[in-house]
Design a protein that fits this description.
Elements: E1 12-15, E2 17-21, E3 24-31, E4 40-43, E5 49-51, E6 54-56, E7 60-64, H1 68-83, E8 98-101, H2 125-128, E9 133-137, H3 146-157, E10 168-173, H4 177-184, H5 186-192, E11 195-199, E12 217-222, E13 242-245, E14 257-260, E15 264-272, E16 278-290, E17 296-302, E18 309-311, H6 322-341, E19 371-376, E20 384-390, E21 394-402, E22 407-416, E23 419-425, E24 438-446, E25 449-457
Parallel strand pairs: 7-8, 7-9, 9-10, 10-17
Antiparallel strand pairs: 1-4, 2-3, 5-6, 11-14, 12-13, 12-15, 13-18, 15-16, 16-17, 19-20, 20-23, 21-22, 21-24, 24-25
């Protein structure tokens, strides 16, 4: 067990599980196989990093609720769109976006990525607010819980932190994700995303608006009156053409058919190109909700998982090799970004002026030990409030140390009663000089006991 407050944003831990059986005491199994450096990993988001000596966080969050293969294509596509890489170039270990891998998102035992009151799973709304764009990819699955979609709804409609000046973008993709949202949290689908589900299988016999199109390939084309077209290719590659592969055997994915509502706009539609040329509306619905002093977001909901799209080339409809799939992901992402922000660069001005990553615990009785309860904000820009608890009355010493173990500042001292207390550190050293950005430690001593907590100072 790792206590709350020990790990700072950007911390990554690789781990594995070892096990043996009483019948074979000399044999130890490792899962996953670590012989090739294959470990499980978890990371505390946002993923703090230094770029040219400047501390930065990403402002794009990719929530991957699908299988590893789907994750691969999205990560490759983001690398092309955000970094200008080639479709087959390796994704760097430190990306310019954050990724939340929603493990076992389709199971009955998963933990929501939206933190429960008093829980320690996932993220709070405050922690999500400084992401300016969220990409939720579901692949061919029906992932998540109602609370997860409540998180996306709250994130769009919170009305805090200069909403009128800082636009948000939400992109939700998946073959069955609209079907699932309609079942567990329909207000996100019908209101915030401006869409309603018409049927859950474009090519299936139960879809009365579809054509029972059992071809492997179905074209995805611009809808008349749509918000933006496939000609919106801001990186100079010109018009692009897409097909969805897997509408029929051998894959037979179940693509959602959508209709706009509550201000939504039909933006892409299906075309049965080899069965008479009939259209089915829509494969994609977008919404622009921009009201002075209120909402300021644009959303994209796609009934086809983007890893089931492929860029058409010449007379070839479904070139479902890696390069053509990655190019399709990258170009749809680019076009969506350009519509949302007027640029393919996501503006990264923090929505709340700082990234809130250290969430104070719920109020409760003071325990029987000395403890630094919280430091907020952490990372800090300016001042930080340090909450600490003293189990019995006595002298306390609250100080800041650098990574070399040198005491650089005294925050609080003297007699304190038993209970919770609050002290504020300005970010200066004991002489009043501003300390540089980096990692520091707060240390609390009283009655022979000691408690520490990591903090990060940013400029």
């Amino acid at each position: 067990m790792i206590r709350d407050g020990i790990l700072a944003p950007g911390t990554a831990i690789q781990y594995f599980i070892s096990a043996n059986f009483t019948c074979t005491p000399g044999v130890v199994g490792l899962y996953p196989d670590t012989s090739g450096g294959n470990f499980w990993e978890f990371e505390i988001l946002p993923s703090y990093r230094l770029e040219s000596g400047v501390a930065k966080y990403p402002c794009v969050l990719h929530i991957n609720a699908a299988l590893d293969k789907t994750r691969h294509f999205y990560q490759q596509g983001l690398n092309v769109a955000l970094n200008g890489a080639g479709p087959l170039d390796p994704v760097p270990s430190l990306t310019s976006w954050d990724t939340y891998d929603y493990d076992a998102a389709c199971s009955c035992f998963n933990a929501p990525f939206y933190r429960s009151v008093g829980g320690n799973n996932g993220a709070t709304l405050l922690q999500l607010l400084d992401y300016r764009l969220i990409l939720f990819s579901a692949g061919a699955t029906q992932p998540g819980q109602a609370r997860d979609f409540e998180a996306l709804s709250d994130w769009l409609s919170h009305g805090q932190c200069n909403t009128s000046e800082n636009r948000q973008g939400l992109i939700v993709t998946g073959d069955d994700v609209s079907t699932w949202i309609a079942a567990v949290y329909p207000s996100l689908l019908n209101n915030a995303l401006g869409a309603r589900l018409v049927c859950d299988d474009y090519g299936g016999p139960s879809c009365t608006v579809g054509l029972e199109d059992d071809s492997r390939c179905v074209r995805i084309e611009d809808a008349p009156g749509g918000a933006y077209a496939t000609t919106l290719a801001p990186q100079g590659e010109g018009d692009y053409a897409l097909s969805a592969w897997g509408s029929g055997c051998p894959e037979a994915f179940t693509f959602d058919v959508l209709q706009p509502t509550a201000g939504g706009i039909g933006n892409r539609r299906y075309l049965d190109h080899d069965g008479g040329g009939a259209y089915t509306e829509y494969s994609q619905v977008v919404k622009s909700s921009i009201s002075p002093g209120s909402d300021n977001y644009r959303s994209v909901l796609d009934g086809v998982s983007w890893d089931h799209l492929a860029e058409r080339e010449g007379g070839n409809e479904c070139l479902s090799d890696e390069a053509h799939i990655v190019n399709a992901v990258a170009k749809e992402f680019d076009a969506a970004l350009f519509w949302i922000y007027g640029s393919t660069t996501v503006p990264c001005t923090p929505r709340c002026g700082q990234f809130v990553t250290d969430v104070a615990p719920l109020p409760g009785p003071v325990g029987d030990r000395l403890e630094i309860l919280s430091i907020a904000p952490n990372p800090m820009q300016g001042v930080a409030a340090i909450r600490f608890a003293v189990p019995v009355a006595g002298d306390v010493d609250l100080a800041i140390f650098d990574v070399g173990g040198r005491r650089v500042a005294t925050v609080a001292g003297g007699m304190r009663a038993a209970g919770e207390h609050l002290a504020v550190w300005s970010g200066d050293d004991s002489s009043g000089r501003r300390l540089g950005q980096g990692v520091y430690w707060a240390e609390l001593r009283s009655g022979g006991a000691r408690a520490t907590r990591k903090l990060i100072q940013m400029r």
